[in-house]
Amino acid sequence: MDIENIIAKVGGAEAMAALTGVGSEAIRKWRQTRAIPAKHWAALLRQPDISLADLTPDHTHNPAHDSEAELTDTCPDGANAALVLADGTVLWGRGFGAHTDGAAVGELCFNTGLTGYQETLTDPSFAGQIVTFTFPHIGNVGTNAEDDEAPRIAARGAVVKEDITAPANWRSSAPLSDWMKRHNVPGIAGIDTRQITRRLRDDGPQTAVLAFPANGQFDIVALRKQAQAWPGLEGMDLARDVSCTQSFTWDLGVWERPAAERTTRRRVVAVDYGAKRNILRCLVTAGCDVTVVPATASAEDILRHNPEGVFLSNGPGDPAATGAYAVPAIRDVLAANVPVFGICLGHQLLAQALGATTYKLARGHRGANQPVKDLGTGKVEITSQNHGFAVDDKSLPDGVEITHTSLFDGSNEGIRSTKYDAFSVQYHPEASPGPSDSFYLFERFVAVMDRRAEAHAPENNAKAGA
């Protein structure tokens, strides 16, 4: 079955979705598996240019996607792990980390960062994903407790090219493989990561299963079915899975960056949709006293802390799904006239609260070398990013301005409300991993709160005198 030819005959992916009564995620899955469920054939056969022969699976393989090594369902000598893609491809390698009880399934993605693999794997935004590292030498500096961005690994697996070597860094407290084993997360080495990168670049997101069984036995047919049955990230709320379950305070700043010299610190409530620790450190360093609340916190839960500002954190999954409970809370916070700053998922949720919509990117942004243009200053920032969804510029209502844009694909990277003291960016200004071009955004947030406090100072003084 030539799925792309069928889609073209119908008039494109949107026309195909409308004709068959499915969503864009279903079309993506059909492209992955190179098959259309038989229940949709009747609608397609009514099209003049489509015949039954077009819809019959032929199970042919596209050699353009292959590496030099032959892809086979039989485990080759020296291999003890497999990466099985939803389109049927099987990539054999050498497992490390934890053995799988069954298999780890998730959306396969790639990350272009040369450093920061520990921060990447513990970034809650990677929940539901198997991370392919394009840089070949992963694990060579080991792991340590200080570089974790969350209490546990969020990614469902890691894919690397070279075997994990012994750590060669004075800060290392455990080899990468041992650390992943302790967190019960598998990895696979010996994979042609360039092949995966090209496939994801050309064909879009792909579901995969990573199998590293202790007994060395593989049921490839079952693994293919597992990959094909996984629903994908679209429509999936994962913020609940990675958020804290109760409120707490955070007072640690950035290690090598001096804290702002301030006589008064600003009270900030950070809503944890999957917050990275370095974001909280940056808020403290910029001059904030931080209270963290769960993703499901209501506006009443947030406002009872009497915040001078509310921060909306990064996180995983589909913003439209998380928005079902997050957006009403954010709208009530805005109505209470409290300044708001959002990052990544928080940016997408703020956009929804202001009336915009989000969509799934054909190619997600993941890496520490992503160029973003600040439309206000004309400056270009090199940023750290990790997102598979984006704000739809066309859906932004009056009163919301675009402030930043991606120089890779032109997608939205930042917004600002002209009605409220609210702004957000899609990328990660806390720079972990990545460059520190964008720390000014935390300082901007504090400046907004300072300005508001100064404006209300006469009023507060009068109340105190009364």
Automatic annotation (TrEMBL):
Keyword annotations for this protein, in alphabetical order, are: Amino-acid biosynthesis, Arginine biosynthesis, ATP-binding, Glutamine amidotransferase, Ligase, Nucleotide-binding, Pyrimidine biosynthesis
Q: Which residues bind L-glutamine?
A: 125, 315, 317, 345, 348, 386, 388-389
E.C. number: 6.3.5.5
Keyword Transferase in the entry? The reply is no
User: Which segments carry the region annotation CPSase?
Assistant: 1-266
Any Gene Ontology biological process: 'de novo' UMP biosynthetic process
Per its record, the protein catalyses: hydrogencarbonate + L-glutamine + 2 ATP + H2O = carbamoyl phosphate + L-glutamate + 2 ADP + phosphate + 2 H(+); L-glutamine + H2O = L-glutamate + NH4(+)
Q: Which GO terms describe its molecular function?
A: ATP binding; carbamoyl-phosphate synthase (glutamine-hydrolyzing) activity; DNA binding
* Catalytic residues as annotated in Swiss-Prot or TrEMBL: 344, 428, 430
Query: Which pathway?
Result: Pyrimidine metabolism; UMP biosynthesis via de novo pathway; (S)-dihydroorotate from bicarbonate: step 1/3; Amino-acid biosynthesis; L-arginine biosynthesis; carbamoyl phosphate from bicarbonate: step 1/1
**Which EC class, in a word?**
ligase
Entry's PANTHER family?
CARBAMOYL-PHOSPHATE SYNTHASE SMALL CHAIN, MULTIFUNCTIONAL TRYPTOPHAN BIOSYNTHESIS PROTEIN-RELATED
Q: Which family does it belong to?
A: Belongs to the CarA family.
* NCBIfam families tied to this protein: carphisopro, CPSaseIIsmall, PRK12838.1
Record text on subunit structure and interactions: Composed of two chains; the small (or glutamine) chain promotes the hydrolysis of glutamine to ammonia, which is used by the large (or ammonia) chain to synthesize carbamoyl phosphate. Tetramer of heterodimers (alpha,beta)4.
What role does it play?
Answer: Small subunit of the glutamine-dependent carbamoyl phosphate synthetase (CPSase). CPSase catalyzes the formation of carbamoyl phosphate from the ammonia moiety of glutamine, carbonate, and phosphate donated by ATP, constituting the first step of 2 biosynthetic pathways, one leading to arginine and/or urea and the other to pyrimidine nucleotides. The small subunit (glutamine amidotransferase) binds and cleaves glutamine to supply the large subunit with the substrate ammonia.
What is this protein identified as? Carbamoyl phosphate synthase small chain
Organism from which the protein derives: Neoasaia chiangmaiensis
Q: Which gene encodes it?
A: carA
